[in-house]
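Revision sheet: structure tokens.
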Amino acid sequence: MTTSSTDAPKVTPEALEALRADMLRFATLQLRDSHLAEDMVQDTLITALAKAEQFAGRASVKTWVFAILRNNVIDAIKLRSRTVSAGDYAAEGESLDSAFDHLFKANEHWTPAARPTDWGDPEDALREQQFWAVFDACLTRLPENTARVFMMREFLELDSHEICTTLSISMSNCHVILHRARNGLRRCLEANWFSGEAPAC
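Predicted:
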């Protein structure tokens, strides 16, 4: 069954304004700069309104608008990466590494005390909106450049080659950063969500 033109979602100022909060949250987490994030969101909203007639309705308005925002954020990251050296990523990684060294034996397996806890049914947790609030808080606790690499991979869905090219880092460095980021998020979520206690963040 096809959707008629009258039933297709429309790009209206009201529809876009309803997305602003989610857009700002996404851009701020990725860029770590509230002013730049606000500029990205505003530019995206202006672009979306200007190109409203190009929206074919094959996806939701939110999906279409976030695709525009994603491209704007990637451009901003590429521009910013010209002033961030690869050494900054390595330095962050080294400081984060020390926090994880004690978790593993020499053979890189978990020590008994550091073994991950039983997270239960992850599907149940993912359904709860508060989980994402805790996840966002954990993400903001990661070192800035570490979080940026993680979000480029998992949120912006760039492949490792694109990340390395954009940030001028090696493939091995990229993989190490992603590993550290996931470990950091795991520890934070275990402490603040999966422990069964009230979230601390």
